[in-house]
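Tutorial handout. Part one gives the primary structure; part two gives the three-dimensional structure as tokens.
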Amino acid sequence: MIKRINSWMLPIALCMGFFFYSFLTQFAVIIPYLISVMLFITYCKISIGEIRFNRLHFRLLAIQIAGSSLIFAALSWLDVVVAQGAMICVLAPTAISAAVITGMLGGDVASLTAYSFLSNLSVAIVAPVLFSVVGAHNSFSFTDSFFYIIKGIFPLLFLPFLLAQLTERVLPRLHSQVKKRQSVSFYLWAVSLTIVVAKTISFIRAQPDSAYHTDLWLALSSLVICLGQFWLGRRIGARYGSTITGGQSLGQKNTVLSIWMAQTYLDPISSVAPGTYVLWQNTVNSVQLWLKNRKVK
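Part two.
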């Protein structure tokens, strides 16, 4: 029964956010705390001594960081909001949950976990710089904007890791209990996704009809970027004997975090891009799993 409910958790979260957006939007303030708790639970599962970085990880990270800057520069002269949405779809760190899909597809879970760790902490450092340059806080100086953003993002992504390591050394029994309850982060993810979808819908509904073409371009750009990242990740990963891991590392994003960052530090409408990315990446994963199961049969 629980497995059946879990398999329907994504459409349930999307429908709840869509139909009850006016009520759920008020809970948006708790999103950063939910993200931090999710990361803390996940980091309790990661042992620093087991993390091994390799060339594949740094090539993927270069694409994630440099690619986000280049795609913004390429699109900003057409539409700044679309450029911001496309940028956040590339910059967004790898989803911690990507390890689950990677394992089901037969990829290297340890390698993906290492990259997910590297990806999240790198975004904590890079995002404040990028958002200070391209964000909506134009009334701030670069320095003020940078420290304003780093105050919000750096603790969100970095402190959960420090707390997990501290808990392992000071409170090993608690750390062990948290490590055994990884499923909690899945339900927190569902709650977070419901709220961020609600907030995205409220932004869209508040727009004039003439602005809906921007939403369409955001959705289309996120589709192209999603397919492109899965393809490019698999292509690069194949050179290192990690086709599946490369694809999931670059293609499967922490969309809850990316939607929150877009709504908080960029033009809120740009969150439509990572919001639709949720649909695209889960469609890609569903097709991959179907093909995998068909091949096995």
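Part three, for discussion. The chain has a mean pLDDT of 83. The longest helix spans residues 142-170.
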